[in-house]
Amino acid sequence: MASRLNPYLSFGGDARQAMEFYKEVFGGTLKLNTYGEYGQKDTPDADKIMHAMLETSNGFTLMGADAPPGMELTPGSNFAVSVSGDDDAELRGYWEQLSAGGSVSVPFEKQMWGDVFGMCTDRFGIAWMVDVVQAQS
């Protein structure tokens, strides 16, 4: 899998509706995962979207999610740039450079879904998500 760079949108509870709308606009295949699927079954957020990915036949990729509880959303700050792939060394290099001189909101480490993932804001104020995708078994 080659690394990919794409926008990642954050929503305040309507990620499913938004991503379904974008699927109507752009076509393609939409995959949705809820917080309940990843260990939060008995919470008020169980049906909210933890991760959505729309991939189109003309090469567009759009990702999004409902913001986790406690994460503030304000207009203009509800997006990040996502870089993901399976080349650990390449992606760690991106992480190290992007986070240097910036601020880390999620440490770059193994997450509950199995990937190594981190979130940071670079020294220019741009939000980044870096994800090393683990092989599916």
TrEMBL record:
Cited Pfam families: Glyoxalase
Boundaries of every Glyoxalase/fosfomycin resistance/dioxygenase domain copy: 5-130
InterPro entries given in the database record: Glyas_Bleomycin-R_OHBP_Dase (IPR029068), Glyas_Fos-R_dOase_dom (IPR004360), PhnB-like (IPR028973)
SUPFAM superfamilies with a match to the protein in the record: Glyoxalase/Bleomycin resistance protein/Dihydroxybiphenyl dioxygenase
The name this protein goes by in its record: VOC family protein
